[in-house]
């Protein structure tokens, strides 16, 4: 090993986004982040993943915070580190496809407010759904990373991943991420995948996996040996469980090897010291369920993301049908097959989960289909790796004609109307985007913000509450 050429591994620290999204339902407020930003900036991480994903929704819905303001504060506090966000392709940071003009404007404003790297994915891996955001990101001259939602199934052969990696390179991306949101990757298979992708493309490979099943640090190590360039980790108090391998453990493990990250563990330890009391507070106030910190092999057995399991439990609880949990769990892979064996990630994970619940509770499959299932079968979310189940499609959409083009080609521009709708509340350009994504929640937040400005106690304001998506 010693004679080998040095190839330092780059670290993406996820504490400000995925780590708390995975462990405490994205509830870390900006005020907890601010005091530690200068230390995080000092470390020399390849990037800080700090925005996008569910943070946008959570800021508005649960924390009464302006997500754009958060981004600007992080940018100010971390002038030397690249800031990274997670972007759901045509679904932006929401749960449905938006028109191109909204997608383009969102990318532009994200970069304007401080984002350097945009990680873009589609829940069906339909690359057509990435076209607009990727083009917009290239135009804004930021680093464009396309993430492939990792999943298993007969359609997902090494050839499939290799072809997709090549196609990503051809789209003009700067790097590829293997996005294993469910924590399904296991060490040797992951290494093979990295090797295959490296063969298919010259782009740097970033591996993003979750600790859920307990395999993730082994998986990352094998991926590094197989040539992965970047790995995603979380500072130890918010690592493991449904989050990522710990940053310190990976840094120490790679020390003095050809992959040495060069990061200062003493500095990382100081950052861990800062977050530990907050983690303990989250356990005390119930935000962090200690169960989430352990490993749960169910995710490998059922091939279902951990977050989706807890979502199903709460849906069934609302229906007073908790005893049907295992029936629903058995129905999930069937629905997934009917829907073209799609990966299970926002929003497909919610669509498949809710339909599985419906199929079990109604006692007849697809007797009732959710609006989202209908839209999926109509092709409105794009193309899955396999064709949809024709029989199911007929039952749900009848004679309606499914679309086969890029779904957003059928969407009329939305911005102009949205601007009119919120004219009375607008305080900054970005407000129209906030409203575009979450109209009701945004309006509630705008009213809260106004109340704050006029001196009315904002805590008296009843903000919108809703079920929290995976
Ligand atoms: Co993740």
Give an account of the 3D structure.
The protein is built from 21 helices and 8 strands. It has an 8-stranded parallel barrel with strand order 1-2-3-4-5-6-7-8, surrounded by 5 helices. α9 packs parallel to α10. It folds into 3 domains: 10-284, Aldolase class I (TIM Barrel); 304-404, Conserved carboxylase domain (Cyclin A, domain 1, Orthogonal Bundle), CATH 1.10.472; 413-460, no CATH class. The protein has 470 residues and is α/β, with parallel strands linked by helices. Residues 18, 181, 208, 210 line the site of cobalt (II) ion (CO).
Structural class: alpha/beta
| Radius of gyration over all CA atoms, rounded | 22 Å
| Helical residues, percent | 40-55%
Major sheet description: 8 strands, parallel, barrel
By DSSP, the count of extended strands is: 8
Question: What is the fold-level CATH name, i.e. the topology of the largest domain?
Answer: TIM Barrel
The rounded distance between the terminal residues' Cα atoms is 42 Å
CATH superfamily of the largest domain: Aldolase class I
Low-confidence stretches: 461-470
Shape: globular
What percent of residues are in strands? 5-15%
Strand order of the largest sheet: 1-2-3-4-5-6-7-8
Give every kind of bound small molecule, once each: cobalt (II) ion
Task: Write the CATH architecture name of the largest domain.
Answer: Alpha-Beta Barrel
CATH C-level label of the largest domain? Alpha Beta
Number of helices: 21
């Amino acid at each position: 090993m010693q004679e080998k050429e040095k190839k330092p591994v780059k670290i993406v620290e996820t504490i400000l986004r995925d780590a708390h999204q995975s462990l405490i339902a994205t509830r870390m407020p900006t005020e907890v982040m601010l005091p530690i930003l200068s230390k995080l900036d000092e470390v020399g991480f390849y990037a800080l993943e700090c925005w996008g994903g569910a943070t946008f929704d959570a800021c508005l819905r649960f924390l009464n915070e302006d997500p754009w303001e958060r981004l600007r504060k992080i940018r100010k506090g971390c002038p030397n580190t690249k800031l990274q966000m997670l972007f759901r392709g045509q679904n932006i940071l929401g749960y449905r496809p938006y028109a191109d003009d909204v997608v383009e404007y969102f990318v532009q404003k994200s970069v304007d407010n401080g984002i350097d790297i945009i990680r873009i994915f589609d829940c069906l891996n339909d690359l057509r759904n990435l076209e607009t955001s990727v083009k917009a990101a290239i135009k804004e001259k930021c680093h464009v990373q396309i993430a492939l939602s990792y999943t298993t199934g007969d359609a997902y052969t090494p050839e499939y991943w290799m072809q997709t990696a090549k196609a990503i390179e051809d789209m003009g991306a700067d790097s590829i991420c293997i996005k294993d949101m469910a924590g399904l990757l296991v060490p040797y298979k992951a290494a093979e995948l990295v090797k295959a992708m490296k063969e298919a493309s010259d782009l740097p490979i970033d591996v993003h996996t979750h600790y859920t099943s307990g395999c993730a640090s082994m998986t990352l190590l094998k991926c590094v040996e197989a040539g992965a360039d970047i790995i995603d980790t979380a500072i130890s108090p918010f690592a493991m469980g449904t989050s990522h391998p710990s940053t310190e453990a990976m840094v120490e493990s790679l020390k003095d090897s050809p992959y040495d990250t060069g990061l200062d563990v003493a500095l990382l330890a100081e950052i861990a010291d800062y977050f530990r009391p907050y983690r303990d507070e989250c356990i005390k106030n119930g935000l962090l369920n200690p169960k989430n910190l352990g490993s749960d092999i169910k995710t490998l057995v059922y091939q279902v993301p951990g977050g989706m399991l807890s979502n199903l439990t709460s849906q069934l609880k609302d229906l007073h049908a908790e005893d049907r949990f295992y029936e629903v769990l058995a129905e999930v892979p069937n629905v997934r097959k009917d829907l073209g064996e799609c990966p299970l990630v926002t929003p497909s994970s919610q669509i498949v989960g809710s339909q599985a619940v419906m199929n079990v509770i109604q006692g007849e499959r697809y007797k009732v289909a959710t609006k989202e299932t209908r839209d999926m079968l109509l092709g409105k979310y794009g193309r899955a790796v396999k064709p949809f189940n024709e029989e199911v499609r007929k039952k749900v959409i009848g004679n309606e004609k499914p679309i086969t083009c890029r779904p957003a080609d059928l969407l009329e521009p939305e911005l102009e109307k949205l601007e009119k709708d919120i004219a009375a509340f607008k305080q900054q350009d970005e407000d129209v985007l906030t409203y575009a994504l979450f109209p009701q929640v945004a309006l509630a937040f705008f009213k809260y913000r106004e109340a704050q400005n006029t001196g009315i106690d904002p805590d008296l304001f009843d903000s919108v509450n809703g079920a929290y998506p995976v």
